[in-house]
Predict the 3D structure of the following.
Amino acid sequence: MAKIIVTGGQKLKGELRVEGAKNAVLPILAATILNGGVNVIKNCPQLKDVGIMLEILKRLGCRAGMKNGTITVDSSTLNSTEIPAELAMEMRSSIILLGPLLARCGKVTISYPGGCEIGPRPIDLHLKSLKLMGAKVQDVHRGFIYGEAETLNGYDIQLDYPSVGATENIMLAAVFAEGETYIRNAAKEPEIVDLQNYLRKMGADVQGAGTSVIRVGGKKKKLCDVEHQVIPDRIVAGTYMVTAGITGGQLHLKDIVPEHLGAVIYNLRDAGCRINIEKNALTITGPARPRALDTLRTLPYPGFPTDMQAQIVAMLSIARGTSVVVETVFENRFQYAEELIKMGANIKLQGRIAVVKGVRGLTGTFVNARDLRGGAALVLAGLAADGETVISGTKHIERGYEKIEERLSQVGANIRRVEDGQ
Ligand code: UD1
């Protein structure tokens, strides 16, 4: 079990390149199943979840590999529809394989997916939509989901909630359906647009991603090989922005899409950060001490991302004044707050609301990351804290950040990773 050790007090300064988006790569990897051909995907981050998805594709019979950030998947050799339980349980995103396997092979077996511990994370919207399209899906039976569909039919689907995963699953399932599929109240995240772009390069008929209505025209004809460059990771970019905000440093972030960071930029400016936006880059300068934010709500895109909630709370914990943060997307996404409190933060929790009374400073101690973004928040808190912060549970952090210690060291952080026994 590795640990990350951060000695706080350095103002971060320098330039960082932001890696490709995990949440875009994962559905795109699921989409590779559809074309029965060659897929070349560039700008992929080297992360455990990406590795797991590649391993699943290999176990399904695809030829898949990654070299220097480029993944190649040849899905012409696919010969299984059973997603190995031990891999599915490692990663919640494995559920998006349901749609493409049903579309291409007419059947699928998957164990109930695992993933971050940030709430119950049901998959009812995925299953309901696939059933409306004509799939026979046996809901969890002894921990497994079995799906079958001789053909899928297009359907006019109204989502109860703009779920990112459900939107992706339906898009993927609909590509070979008989007739048109509409997804209304669809998620509008940039990763959905990237998936649409990928599917279109394959020759699929998809429109509307980025708006609340997506239309997929079913198609029987063969799809083609694809080459694609994945969009930058807006959550990694946002996290690095907060490292400047929380340390009063100055960072130049390159290889980003500033438009994807609208709500993050808006709130960081409100908290006193200076942000200069350029084409595919930005420079952020943190204030001597951040200002509190009045009320910040997490929302589906283009609202403030739930995946940035923990990081911004870490910053608000040392802000001047009291902030109120409301988590509307996931239940149980304030677990990390307990650890910040150990470091001296003054945070009161009431269900989905956190009242964060800014303190003058945090103090390093032993803390435990229990989920990905909560783990990142502890690293950020460590950067600003007095003394040494020792973070365990680093496997969660590694699911979403490529070489975080190396990157932050490059811009002046005193951070290192130690394996147990060292
Ligand atoms: C994706 C992201 C995750 C991000 C989240 C919200 C990936 C791999 N992960 O997760 O990082 O935090 O979007 O931006 O892209 N829900 C249901 N029933 C369902 C599906 C979802 O009730 O069938 C609920 C969830 O429990 C949650 C909310 O809807 O409360 C949002 O979930 P969803 O948008 O589906 O998130 P994910 O796709 O799991």
Notes: Residues 64 and 251 are 36 Å apart (CA to CA). The chain has a mean pLDDT of 95.
